[in-house]
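Retry 2 of 3 after timeout on previous attempt. Resubmitting structure tokens to design endpoint.
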């Protein structure tokens, strides 16, 4: 990687010092498999400092992910503490926030609490989820026979927030995760801008100008007291918490200090270092991979079984509702394009699966 870095640094401003940049982008070299994964400073990413582009692209091409580090005014431990407090609330309180599928008395279909089912015989993954989106309010209902217009309205479903007898907690929970959502959205969009510059796809960011159905999920994987035989990996027999998969859109992930996440690299699953107190993992999914002509892999990953309650936060940034996803940046037919033209049509089937 250091040889590659020397080549890439030809694009770095002359005023930048090589040792400082190497230390900035790869601060720890411990001969680990993922030591060479780029660590991009948050401010440099958001400020569109072009020196980061070749490093980010190289990391994505080789490993399928990179880290965003040094995020100001962000505390992962504070987020995890609030998550624990939320999941410790009594079930009746959480049920008031449950999505309609779990509580038919509620109006919220997508945003809110989705309890997991600890049923080893009939379920695979056991996780609880609290889903947060970009909207706090929405306009009056749409009077239209157009399916997509109705769907556009559904995608703007407002968030629901805890209302307990602890007003301090309620306020802190809402404000912290509103801010956390914005941080992650900024990272996702800045990543798209960087990839667009590096690949010379100037129109790519326009597909992500709006994010009607971006989503942030606060996940708790409770300890499972019984082994689910269906959760053994078909790939190598490892017992899993989260099945092997690739994502669909842009993912910004917080694992806190929790182990378990593994990335497929050179046909072997390797443990990805936890994000810790002040960083995030960024990767892309199949839909975005196709849009950029499959020049960057959508990394396959999973979560191995652990002997503790595991917390994480996933944020997904998708294209805007009207974004054309049927063609790549060079005009090639995408896999999604065999069935859909715009992202709104794709999300329709996704939402149907949730409901």
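Retry 2 succeeded. Sequence:
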């Amino acid at each position: 990687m250091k040889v590659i870095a020397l080549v890439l640094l030809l694009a770095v401003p002359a005023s930048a010092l090589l040792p400082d940049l190497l230390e900035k982008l790869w601060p720890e070299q411990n001969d680990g498999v993922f030591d060479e994964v780029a660590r991009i400073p948050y401010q440099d990413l958001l400020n569109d400092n072009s020196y980061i582009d070749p490093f980010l692209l190289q990391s994505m091409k080789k490993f399928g992910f990179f880290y965003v580090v040094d995020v100001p005014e962000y505390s992962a431990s504070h987020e995890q503490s609030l998550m624990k407090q939320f999941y410790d609330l009594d079930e009746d309180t959480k049920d008031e926030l449950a999505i309609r599928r779990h509580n038919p008395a509620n109006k919220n279909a997508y945003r809110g609490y989705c309890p997991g089912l600890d049923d080893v015989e009939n379920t695979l993954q056991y996780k609880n989820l609290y889903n947060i989106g970009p909207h706090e309010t929405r306009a009056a209902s749409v009077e239209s026979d157009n399916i997509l217009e109705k769907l556009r309205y559904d995608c703007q479903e407002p968030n629901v927030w805890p209302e307990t007898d602890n007003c301090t907690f309620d306020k802190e929970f809402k404000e912290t995760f509103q801010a956390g959502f914005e941080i992650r959205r900024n990272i996702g969009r800045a990543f798209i801008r960087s990839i667009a510059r590096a690949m010379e796809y100037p129109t790519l960011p326009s597909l992500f100008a709006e994010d009607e159905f971006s989503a942030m999920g606060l996940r708790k994987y409770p300890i499972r007291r019984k082994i689910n035989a269906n959760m053994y990996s078909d790939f190598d027999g490892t017992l899993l918490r989260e099945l092997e998969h690739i994502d669909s859109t842009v993912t910004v992930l917080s694992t806190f200090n929790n182990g378990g996440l593994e990335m497929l690299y050179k046909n072997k699953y390797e443990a990805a270092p936890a994000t810790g107190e002040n960083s995030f993992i960024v990767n892309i999914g199949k839909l975005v991979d196709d849009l950029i002509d499959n020049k960057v892999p959508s990394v396959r990953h999973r979560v191995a079984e652990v002997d503790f309650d595991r917390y994480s936060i996933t944020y997904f940034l998708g294209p805007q509702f009207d974004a054309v996803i049927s063609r790549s940046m060079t005009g090639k037919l995408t896999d999604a394009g065999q069935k859909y033209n715009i992202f709104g049509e794709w999300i329709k089937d996704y939402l149907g699966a949730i409901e």
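Attempt log closed. The radius of gyration is 21 Å.
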